[in-house]
Amino acid sequence: MAAFRRWKEQRLARADESRKGSVDEAIAGLVQLLNGQERFCTTSSCAGRLLLAQAPARGFNGYEVQKKNCSWLMVTHQLCAKEDVMTVLQKATGDTVFKFEPFILHVQCQELQDAQLLHSVAIDSGFRNSGITVGRRGKIMMAVRSTHCLEVPLSHMGKLMVTEEYVDFLVQIANRKMEENMKRIDRFYNCLQLALKTELSMSNSPREMIQKTHSVYTHRRKRKPDKEPGVCTSSENKEESETEDDPEANLNIFS
User: Where is there biased composition of kind Polar residues (predicted)?
Assistant: First the structure.
């Protein structure tokens, strides 16, 4: 416990090495909430972004964006307009790919049970590609991830390969994904707050009661109608909404 605390202090004292150099505003409160707990330490994060990437002269490797080998012609953590994308595409000289990357968060956890708590919250919040990894030296990492990505090549050697109408269509899809992404972040934040409060109240309960309830997030409840966006709901509801929104919803989860 003391070793984790020292490591966390050193980690949080480091300069932010991301391109932006700071935590995205949309998730600043969430990151602060996690780092305010002794057992959690965030190591990397992104609130989600829309970007237009351009490959070097040799082009993309199978049109997969390699961050180290490409330049970002446009990046935003907000909704964007077709005109923004078209303006940038007119200046492109190489192969470009339009991409939506959803929220991602990596958290190092002090104990495995801490990571399991975050995993339950993430799954219930719609981040069904989340998982836990344990290193050889016992390093416990929890990754919060989603599956509703988007990646489409638009131009080759500076020549636009699709119509402007299709670019408009893609932007609309990407914006809807960004809106859903922000809703899931809100749900995650609210569910995490509830989980921490529930765990605190259970800490003074008899051990038998704790074992029976285990976690409010692993107990499946009946669906309640007209849930507000950002309100924590049961696992069944999240699986249903994820399946409707995401064709990749059947991806296996590491638990």
Answer: 205-216
